[in-house]
Batch of 4 targets.
Target 1
Amino acid sequence: MRRLRRTPKIRKLVEETTLTPSDLVYPMFVKEGINNPEPIHTMPGQFRLPLRYVAKEAKNIASLGVSAVILFGIPVKKDKVGSSAYDKNGIVQQGVKAIKETLENELVVMTDVCLCQYTSHGHCGVVKGNDVLNDPTLEILQRMAVSHAEAGADVVAPSGMIDGQVQAIREALDNSGFANVAIMAYSAKHASSFYESFREAAHSSPSFGDRRGYQMSYANPNEALREVELDIKEGADIVMVKPALAYLDLIYRVKTKFGLPTAAYNVSGEYSMIKAAAEKGWINEKAIALEVLTAIKRAGADMILTYFAKETARWLTEK
């Protein structure tokens, strides 16, 4: 077996899993009411961007060969129902327009469709007492998704784990003349401790309780497959497993069972752990990040949402 491992060129020739910049999606945080990028303390190298930086950053990302960005908005105004989420002049809507005006179709623009950053209580939907109401939330998600499509989004990505969200959004898009806008469903999004860095980054921590009433238990892989199947039946074009690194078995099972384009989210906690250990000098950041991302692709992911996208694109070019 060692004959085909003898030199770098031979190893590359027989490589079974190839990671490329075009496999990657870069998450961007766009914040209303700031003039300069804000460093995210828990995610070294990541920033909350003001609107005027968005198109420039997107152009840089496209130049690296990265296929797509996904925008997360951080508004100034928050209320009980997250009304700024569907404002035609909202921060994400303006961000999408800025990217499309600069790059047109050079970069796929995805948008997160969830209310947690927009609600005063930090939950992913309309709240009554301590409960997140399902159907009233769907109506707001429909308006949000349509407003993103009107701004020019190529893909909308519902992430709130609200039952029926894919079907509701598909109907709203189709009825509004946006049949060509795709849906990337966060189909198997787990109630995970790997999200802590993101919640600090997006100012989206719930003010009471937690999200275990709508996000999935990580102990239930068969339930995850049922969630994915439901989203496919409702019209999802892409399905996602989130997080990625501790869920490689689910990525494999989803891709093997359904064969649909499959995304995996290499989430904030996975990123921050590597960054923290690298800063301590305990690991080789580049080597570990490339190994992790290759493992996620090897498990079956067609695309990987990762905060390492820019660095990885440069590393792969250097190889």
Target 2
Amino acid sequence: MKEGGARLREAVNQLLPTIKQGQTTKEIDKKAEKLILSKGAEISFKKVKEYSWATCLPINEQVVHTPPGDRVLKEGDVLTIDVGAYYRGFHTDYATTFVIGGSGSRETDMFLRVGRETLDRAIQQAKVGNYIGHISQVIEKGICSSGYHVMKQLTGHGVGRELHEDPFVPGYLDKPLKETLKIRTGLVLAIEVIYSLGTEHIVNEKGNDWSIATADGSLSACFEHTVAITDENTYVLT
């Protein structure tokens, strides 16, 4: 999984500089697929039943699972790239959100910075002896203390031979901390910070199969890393 994650991240690092206004998300998806395959990996998301693309590419109010299509990127749009690679029988999963054109308004840039920093802090809690609740607690505090909203119906997850495995990794503490799963060596998690500017509520986007959007049309973002926990350390695989 360490090797698969490195190959996925290498593909993403080559993809990101090529993304600009005027492109469709379908064009970006084709580039992503070509890059992942060029690294000797397979497309994780195509192993999800009835999903036919290499990426999910939500824009602005779209939250997660948005398939690539004919929507054209404009300068200032906020784009999430969610992508996975399957290498030698194991999946790794990664997501990041950024502004087309480099930077947005002060409010947008702050919104995205909080998500990135919250994910970094959450990963620090993924260690032997802690509980999943420690991760959830840090995400909830980081997002909500900044005035934003955790999308409570959407969570991180275990990852390995399947793209989505137990346990769920919520972005908020939904029960007493010590009633959540204790973290043990060998656990691999896709930790996700999924949040919005205006609401915790989501809707299925009309006319767009798979896509989930914010109920109020406000901006959303997702930051995700696959991490592996060992006795000695926690490794960010992506």
Target 3
Amino acid sequence: MVEDIAELYEPVAEEKDVRLTLTPAGTTMIEGNRSLISQALSNLVDNAIKYTPSGGSVTVTAMETPDGAELRVADSGPGIPAGERGRVVERFVRLDASRSAPGTGLGLSLVAAVARLHDARLSLEDNQPGLRAVMRFPRPTPRAKALPPPRNRSDGAAAS
């Protein structure tokens, strides 16, 4: 999924002269709705490319950690001031610096909603320079083994 999103946004990044890099980290498993997680990651990549100036870079990483899985999108753009990071995940909030760029202020709120739905945490961090958005997903729960169906008893006794 991460490779597909990076491939989808590669022409957008090239057109803007932004280097889009996918950091290989092996297989990463996330338990959840593929479509919603894909949309959230797409929003993060789209924002990163949109706000990174020409000549900058965006890095997308999926990795396993001891606590679960992480999806990271880091850019070399202007970032978001620490005091505004909690506010930008609210619906329709756009910072003054981004008002000239197209958008509705719903992208990060959607990412935050998808994270909550999957018991994940979204954190917006300083990438020095730029922003690093990290979705931290809990480790998938082990699935209980299905019990075999009860055998038919030929002696007339009820199976328990």
Target 4
Amino acid sequence: METTTRIEPQKMEAFLGRVLGDFGASLGVTLGFIGDKLGLYKAMAFAGPLSSEEVAERSGTNERYVREWLINQAAGGYIVYDEVLRKYILPDEHAVALTDENSPFNVAGGFQIMNAMNKAYERIEENFLTGEGMKWGEHHHNLFEGTERFFKPSYLGNIIDHWLPAITGIVDNLKTGITVADIGCGHGISTQIMAKAFPNSKFVGFDNHAPSIDKAREMGNKARLDNLEFEVSSAQDFKEKKYDLITFFDCLHDMGDPINALKHCRKMLNHGGVIMAVEPMAGQKIEENFNPVGRIYSGASVLCCTPNALATGGYALGTIASDKELEKVAKAAGFNHFRRATETPFNRVFEIKD
């Protein structure tokens, strides 16, 4: 097919360069996941210059595969090649980000998440045509495991020191002793962090994905926290008692019926109770999402969050819902007070109450 459109060579070259970069990044994510899973990064961490043979020996892998893996990682800037020694180095900063599970900089779980979401492409492609959804629990198990690993560093670094203190008066109440419901808790990392920090308060984590609750209970038992429990339940029907604080960590936008979820929360709050909703960072205008964070979150919205919402109720807020869209949902649920309490480069924290 011929075109009469005048092509500007420089613009075409720039665009093709961007596409080629994305091709390389896509392969790099897969190889990053392999490097994380097989311990290649850990084999290189703080070890100084290593040859492909040495990396293979230290990780128990095959050198012939490691050889090009190292070239790929150096081309992507993850590792450094010493031309004199003809060996590879994993910089200390990169080693922390890729191997230290408790560091606030750790990103290794992200490889696992991306790998899992990409596996759903055939189902999502079909959904583009039918408008149907895909439940969270229907994804590859790497999505659940990767989400735990990826969000844990941020939660460790922010929940106790930054996010909860931004909610009016809640830290003092938690120290004294209150009841807390953590909705959509997944493997329960957020619930466990709060329970450990505030032993006088009682915490219950709820999630509608039974295998995730099984994992949360297993991890909670190992932590030996007697103020912590987990139950399988949706946001629209969790029971047991009334609560002084209800939390949503990166999950309100996933819910197919967020208005009724918040309506139910309103019924379950004690007088003076409050909701803390942590949501992904997003712009107030569409164009404010045209950046690396917006690119990741909008992609996750298409492959994971929006499909779950469409499969479980049909009201798809999406991962990059604006403050106004979230406030609209809160007001529709009957709440009068809605404010952005604090933020990080990757998250917004909202205070919702009567």
